[in-house]
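Journal club side-thread
Mid-discussion, someone asked how the predicted structure for our own chain would compare to the paper's figures. Pasting it here so we can look after the session.
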Amino acid sequence: MWGLRRTSYAVGGDEDKSESTKKKGLAMSAEEHDSPGLLAAFSKQLAEAVASAGASVVRVEARRRRAASGIIWGQSDLVLTADHVVERDEDLAIGLPDGGTADASIVGRDPGTDLALLRVSGHDTPAISLGATPEVGHVALAVARPGSSLATSIGVVSAWGGPTRTRRGGQLKGVIWTDATLYPGFSGGALVDTGGRMVGLTTSRYGSGAGLAIPLETIERVAASLLQHGHIKRAFLGVSSQTVRLPTRLRGQLSVEQHSGLLVVGLAADGPAERDGLMLGDVLIGFDDTSIETTDDLVNQLGPSRVGQAATLRLIRGGAARDVSVTVGEWE
């Protein structure tokens, strides 16, 4: 059939040198492909990461059913956890890494971002170390203490989601999606990197069983406000609206460049908008110096600093433009 000819390749014309090089290459190849050794080293690194983070992960007993998890945060007398696992205001207990327990009280809570801050004393558990913002593809470990001992699961950072507006009026600038499994009691635990540094707080509140974590940017902002005020200030206008397109002729008459605005379809009784003169059928097109075309545009103007401040709303009413001054309220 086919004729095959064996070909020899010399290196530098030196047969002994060629054989020596070949042996070295084989040795390097075997060393580079020492998979059991690499896996053992990686496994050890992960175990060390879990142990390091776990020294700051506690059990939170604040509901009737299974306990949840929490994290020693910032200073040793603070515990950060998921708000939805705190189902009572009193008789709270923290299970410590050394096996002891301590009483806890609520410093503040924010259902909007699913974060709660507790105070606990009489222990020397260290605060958790914080890591850098994770990238998609990074290995991630969920570290929790739903019982008397540590529990963990492994995955990767699958994606970044958001910004997300929550059902309770909160705003998450981003959420971390991970395929690390969140077993019962994992909410309030830490999502950590391979060095055991926290990159997010795990929660099952938003993901219908998916692995989600609240990123450090949100945690630091909310925790600081909870520590100072006990809650998160949220601006409130008391307006229900829907996006509508502005007719071309009307835009020309009013010298308006934007193509849409918000039609006011509902007003909260005795809310800021109703008190200050907004009416059903008004079309909101501006908030101070910012054009308003969508609901997100309006939401972005209603930050905590707006509470109690006067704002000028630009409206279209009866085919004419007008300005209405409104004092922004706080959502209770």
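Post-session note: Residues 235-330 form a domain with the Pdz3 Domain fold (CATH 2.30.42.10).
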